[in-house]
């Protein structure tokens, strides 16, 4: 069951041994983890077509671009048309007819983002610099990626009771545990016990123990194009070029 206004669309994870990993030794080279982070403040979020189509992988992408640029530069807001165009470029979806609305493999979306780029406002395309997989239960690694890279691109398997939830997402053993399908979200902040996640047009809290139960993939993303300010460093002063070199060596 997919209720009106909430569509799923993440296909099962694809594993590739060539994917960089944001492993503990690399993450440990970053500064101490802040107790909480809220990059989503004052960011403009939208549904980006995910109320009608299974383009959650590209709605989450648009949310990250908006989050990065709002905090590092000036906010860049993708349109719904652009998100659907990006979905089409990666998967063969037809925005004109809605045909081939079959969802997205997140790793394929990331690979194409890095190699070919996606549509964004202005005269340039949006390119991802690099990305690395994060162990799902490495909470410190996930927090470091949110704090120093501006967010985590993540996938979950959605139990039926979450499709009906209008507030915080918490573990509910009494709820309907039937898995409705996969969903791509963006972690854009955290506080003790909770992740702040973009999904279906806005940001809500997701309990960490629920994450442990339903998450199936997570990636830290490096975007020189969006996460660097005028001085050439991230909002927390990180040198992204050095981080990419460490990812390659990990």
Structure described in brief:
This protein is α+β, with helices and mostly antiparallel strands.
Annotation keywords:
8 strands, 9 helices, about 20% strand, about 250 residues, Cathepsin B, Chain A, alpha+beta
Can you describe what's shown?
The chain is of the alpha+beta class and 250 residues long. It has one domain: Cysteine proteinases (Cathepsin B, Chain A), CATH 3.90.70.10. It is 32% helix and 20% strand. Strands 1, 2, 3, 4, 5, 6, 7 and 8 form an 8-stranded mixed β-sheet that branches. β5 and β6 form a beta hairpin. α2 packs across α3. It is globular, with a radius of gyration of 17 Å. The mean pLDDT is 90.
CATH superfamily: Cysteine proteinases
Residues in helices, as a percent range: 25-40%
What value does the average pLDDT take? 90
β-strand percent reads: 15-25%
- CATH secondary-structure class: Alpha Beta
- Please give the domain count: 1
The best one-word shape is globular
The main pleated sheet reads as:
8 strands, mixed
Report the radius of gyration as a whole number of Å. 17 Å
Task: Give the structural class.
Answer: alpha+beta
Low-confidence stretches: none
Give the SSE order as H and E letters: EHEHHHEHEHEEEHEHH
Which architecture name does CATH use? Answer: Alpha-Beta Complex
CATH topology: Cathepsin B, Chain A
Number of strands: 8
Distance between the termini: 41 Å
Helical run tally: 9
């Amino acid at each position: 069951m997919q209720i009106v206004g909430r569509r799923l669309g993440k296909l099962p994870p694809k594993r590739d041994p060539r994917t960089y990993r944001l492993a503990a030794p690399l993450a440990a080279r970053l500064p101490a983890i802040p107790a909480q982070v809220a990059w989503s403040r004052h960011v403009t979020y939208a549904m980006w077509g995910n109320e009608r189509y299974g383009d959650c992988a590209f709605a989450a992408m648009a949310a990250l671009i908006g989050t990065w640029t709002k905090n590092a530069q000036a906010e860049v807001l993708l349109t719904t048309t652009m998100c659907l165009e990006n979905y089409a470029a990666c998967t063969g979806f037809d925005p004109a007819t809605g045909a081939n609305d079959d969802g997205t493999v997140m790793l394929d979306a990331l690979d194409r983002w890095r190699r070919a780029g996606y549509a964004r406002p202005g005269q340039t395309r949006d390119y991802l610099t690099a990305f690395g997989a994060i162990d799902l239960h490495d909470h410190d690694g996930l927090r470091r990626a949110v704090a120093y890279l501006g967010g985590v691109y993540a996938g979950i398997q959605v139990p039926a009771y979450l499709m009906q939830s209008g507030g915080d997402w918490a573990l509910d053993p009494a709820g309907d545990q039937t898995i409705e399908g996969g969903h791509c979200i963006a972690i854009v902040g955290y506080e003790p016990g909770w992740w702040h996640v973009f999904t279906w047009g806005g940001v809500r809290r997701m309990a960490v123990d629920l994450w442990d139960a339903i998450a199936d993939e997570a990636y830290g993303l490096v975007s020189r194009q969006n996460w660097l300010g005028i001085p050439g460093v991230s909002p927390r002063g990180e040198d992204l070029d050095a981080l990419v070199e460490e990812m390659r060596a990990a």
